[in-house]
Amino acid sequence: MQENLTPVGQALQSIMPLIYLMAIGIVASILFSIVDMFSIDRVLKLVKGRRVFVFLGKEAHYGRLETPPRSKGGFEVFYTDSGIENPLSLVAFLVENYHETGNKKFLEKAEILLQYLKDRGMIDPEITIEDVKINSWAPPSRVSRKVYSNELGDLWMIISFVDEMTEEEKLRRWKELSDLYSKPFLKSATRRIYNALSYVKDKVAAALSSSTGVLMSSLPADLRKAVEEAQTKALGAAVGQSYDPLLENSIGRLVTVRVDDVDGERKYYQGVLGEYSDRYVYVLDVDYRLQLTAEVSGTEVRRVVPVVQFFGERLDVAGERHFELFRGDDGVLEIKNLWRRPIKVEKVTFGDKEVSVGRVLFPGESVEVRGVPETCSIHYEIALESDVVWPRSKAVIVGLGDYPPRILQSVLEGLKIKNLVKRVI
To answer: Deepest of 128, 141, 297, 327, by most Cβ within 10 A of its Cβ?
Structure first.
């Protein structure tokens, strides 16, 4: 039969496997593109629209978190109005557009914004629109911080402090926790379907890989890599993030998390696992330990600053009075906890010297530190109830914090047997 084919037909027949593979690659790429247009990391989807602190490098940005589809784990934090940087530059930009275009809409927007900023106490209330200067050397305005996927290596966490939430946000949070504990039927069924699709995806990927493996081996390396990537992406995007059985059975349970924290230390936290994805874990009801430094003169605390620099909003709890100071003879400094919760005094520093303390003070308790001059800095931690999103590169769920009912029953039965054996012996 092949002898009756023309030279063109014979050539086409010889490259049919290549055409077949190219078609698979094109179809897979189209499927991937369509699905990927609507894909959002399932952890970020839970905190989307919420007011959070984002700890990035040595900075913390506060505002409303938004994440567009296809962001590959990236997101944007929109500062609250009080956190806008250099707002007068934004007014000047609108005034400049008015002068350049003659469009009065720009002037109207500038006047409305100027009045709003004055009402909020963010600029001098005496400033008028005529006083706004167009200064090319003025610092630019900024209302958000974009966190790109290639910056996620510098991301420590996305955290919301319960003390900073409104009553409405607290109610929504308790509903989320309640759903985790009780696991409504619809949500449980949805997760099971999702996990089943993940299993099917793995099987389809294995079957497709084995069926095309022979043909793929004859392709040039670059083309083979492109087809493999398109095939993998299409299958992966169609189902979403990977299924992790060791984390799946911990959803809604108390877990212990090992974290590489902002200060470079490795710490352990506990909380309720809410969700996970390829990039993140979401843990609720965590007592997060925030590091603060108090600058002291005599018995007066001049100011308290977080170790991490905050953008977009001051952390209100950092301005609270956490302790009272007393001075004794021979440079004795007494630190008494005045706060409603425990605090941990790490150390006292002065010049190039430091005195290690390392004491947890419960409300009303105090500690004496000797050899401290009038001017010094007190380094301490407070614990704040929080919901935290950690990158999986910085946090590992090392185990459960409590027994599941099924396991607990067997443990208790084992203890009964041990006690019985002891009595017999």
So the answer is: 141
